[in-house]
Design goal:
Layout: H1 21-24, H2 39-67
Amino acid sequence: MARGGAGNMLGVGGSRKNLGREALRGGGRGGRTGGGLDPRAQKRELLRRLQEKRQQQRQEGDTQQGSS
């Protein structure tokens, strides 16, 4: 036997937001539905900053060795 209707299941799936075509295609709010960067972009940005920091430290070390 089937259960009678879905009237007693209100709120089970959480609140829904009607998304427009642009949001469904990844447009708007940083290209993500929730906004912000996707995990790959976050990792790329983190690696870029780390590499820049290491490069600066290396250059500072070279200038200190060269001046002594």
